[in-house]
Design goal:
This protein is of the alpha/beta class. It has five domains: 80 residues, Arc Repressor Mutant, subunit A, CATH 1.10.10; 64 residues, Winged helix-like DNA-binding domain superfamily/Winged helix DNA-binding domain (Arc Repressor Mutant, subunit A), CATH 1.10.10; 117 residues; 101 residues; 98 residues, Response regulator (Rossmann fold), CATH 3.40.50.2300. 55% of the residues lie in helices and 10% in strands. It contains 22 helices and eleven strands. Strands 9-8-10-11 form a four-stranded parallel β-sheet, sandwiched between helices. Helix 5 packs across helix 7, helix 10 runs antiparallel to helix 12 and helix 15 packs antiparallel against helix 18. The termini are far apart.
């Protein structure tokens, strides 16, 4: 296992590249990791030295950045979840936190010093950092002489353990969401996943992949912590009967002697599952969104589906599930760069909702951005007159021109109403159509002087062409949709 000895920062770097599915610039990596570009370059060089090139390789491309190519995913998992190095404060904080959460009795500070090869002064500094982590999760660090323990309700302890292990998932879409190697009881977890699938299916319940893994981890945790003080009763979700039936069925399928059958455990697991299910209309109707959409300049804030998705986000905040996740951060950042206006609205919405519901400081406001974009899409589809009218001008033969036209219409459906394709030679045809945007396969003087925004595209419709059209559409839609 010595070959898998990477710093936590280096493992995070690998996870970021793993989640990006493309190139990531050094500036992006340094910003996300909170280190200098020089440190990023040094870490990438060190990773290249330590990992087996037959398992994974990081390639660099001038002007693009870095990309990860994984050849052996099982071995790759060991690198991003393997032995803790304990060389950085972040590594030690995670190790110390997990040790205290799992401890059967108070831990001696002398033992922790020997285990992590650090001085008492360094340990005291680490404990201050650890206390801030515990404070954010309603946990407390208890010290009696030189012995340490965590004092908290069992439910709070479990919530933090679940978050830690949830962050140790591999979210790469190449293989779906899976638990990385090095996880204890991986065979038991696989068995739980099979049984949970049957339990959910039997009740006609469906949840996303992350929530499925989170619920499986909760069942695993209940099995691992049998005999502990039962967690306090949690308020049930909107469908406790279905959730309870699914959990009971799941536990009944587990091997004898493993399943926790105590009523308190069943209730806790049912409550966890119930909170993972979509919220009901009554829950979403209680969300205090601005009644005057014009004041915000966003005409679709009262969209019913948007309300449901915001209610689901608030429930995630309540359950501690709103923590930033590697598999979403890269995508959300890209969305924010493309849609800065709605990204600002997402942040403003979160500030508004803080007065209504408890939202942890670490909650990512950009998590609301995809819901706003979907609501915008539904609004545009419902009101075609708001869409941008775009004309396609093409000098190619009719079959090719029609193909280009159909591809553009399919790519930007719901945001633009296309007309054409028009030939280049007769400008009067365009003047009669009166478009708000012109997409042309040629760039002539006549079109340059045309009093309408124009985007020149290639007949091959390259990715850069779609990006330029997207940028132009976003600018025009913002002028039509948003005020102020």
């Amino acid at each position: 296992m010595a070959d898998y000895l990477l710093l936590e920062r280096q493992r995070k770097l690998l996870r970021l590249l793993n989640a990006s599915h493309g190139y990531v610039t050094g500036a992006e990596l340094s910003s996300k990791l909170g280190v200098s570009s020089r440190t990023v370059r040094s870490d990438i060089a060190e990773i290249g030295r330590l990992i087996d090139p037959g398992a994974a390789q990081i390639s660099a491309s001038r002007g693009k950045g870095y990309s990860l190519h994984v050849s052996d995913r099982n071995t790759f998992h060991r690198y991003i979840s393997g032995t803790e190095s304990l060389l950085t404060r972040e590594d030690r904080n995670r190790h110390l936190l997990l040790s205290l959460l799992w401890a059967e009795a108070p831990i001696s500070m002398d033992a922790m010093e020997d285990q992590m090869f650090i001085s008492r002064t360094t340990l005291e500094t680490d404990l201050k950092v650890l206390q801030r982590t515990l404070d954010s999760h309603s946990l407390a660090l208890s010290r009696k002489g030189s012995r340490l323990s965590i004092t908290a309700d069992e439910c709070a302890v479990r919530a933090l353990i679940l978050r830690i292990y949830s962050e140790n998932l591999d979210f790469s879409s190449h293989a779906g969401i899976v638990m990385q190697d090095g996880f204890p009881d991986s065979e038991l977890l696989r068995s739980i996943r099979r049984c949970l699938k049957e339990g959910l299916r039997g009740q006609g319940l469906q949840i996303d992949d992350f929530r499925f893994m989170y619920c499986a981890l909760a069942v695993w945790l209940a099995c691992r912590r049998r005999g502990k003080l039962p967690p306090r009763r949690l308020p049930c979700g909107p469908e406790p009967a279905q959730a309870s039936a699914a959990i009971r069925r799941t536990l009944s399928l587990l091997p004898d002697g493993i399943s926790p059958c105590e009523s308190e455990e069943i209730h806790w697991l049912s409550a966890v599952l119930a909170r993972l299910l979509p919220p009901g209309s009554a829950e979403s109707a209680a969300i205090p969104l601005p009644p005057d959409a014009a004041a915000w300049g966003i005409p679709f804030l009262q969209d019913p589906q948007l309300r449901l998705e915001i209610a689901s986000y608030l429930r995630d905040c309540t359950n501690g599930l709103a923590f930033p996740q590697f598999h979403t951060q890269y995508v959300l950042q890209q969305m924010a760069e493309t849609h800065p206006r709605l990204a600002g609205t997402a942040r403003a919405l979160l500030d508004l909702l803080r007065a209504y519901s408890h939202i942890p400081e670490y909650a990512d406001p950009l998590s609301l951005l995809p819901s706003l974009l979907s609501a915008q899409q539904r609004y545009l589809a419902s009101y075609p007159e708001v869409q941008v009218s775009a004309a396609v001008v093409c000098h190619m033969p009719p079959p090719i021109a029609q193909y280009i036209f159909s591809q553009l219409r399919r790519q930007f459906a719901g945001r633009a109403r296309f007309c054409g394709p028009f030939p280049v030679y007769d400008r009067s045809l365009l003047e009669e159509a009166r478009p708000q945007l012109i997409l042309s396969t040629v760039d002539t003087k006549d079109f340059r002087s045309f009093p309408t925004p124009m985007v020149t595209i290639s007949p091959q419709l390259l990715s850069d062409d779609f990006h330029r059209v997207e940028t132009a559409l976003q600018r025009l839609l913002a002028e039509r949709l948003y005020k102020g």
